Amino acid sequence: MKFESKCLHSGYEPKNGEPRVMPIVQSTTFTYESSNEMGDLFDLKAEGFFYTRLGNPTLDFVEKKIADLEGGVGAMLTSSGQAASLISIMNICKAGDHVVASAAIYGGTFNLFNKTLRDMGIDFTFVPGDATEEELKAAIKDNTKAFFTETLTNPALVVTDIELWANVAHEIKVPLIVDNTFPTPYNCNPFKFGADIVVHSTTKYMDGHAVQTGGVVVDSGNFDWVASGKYPMLTTPDESYHGVTYTESFGKAAYITKARTHLMRDLGAQAAPMNAFLLNLGLETLPVRMERHCFNAQKVAEFLENNDMISWVNFPGLESNPYYDRAKKYMPHGTCGVVSFGIKGGREAATKFMDSLKMASVVTHVADIRTCVLHPASTTHRQLTDEQLIAGGISADLIRFSVGIENIDDIIEDITQALEACK
Question: Is the pTM of this model over 0.90?
Answer without folding.
Answer: yes
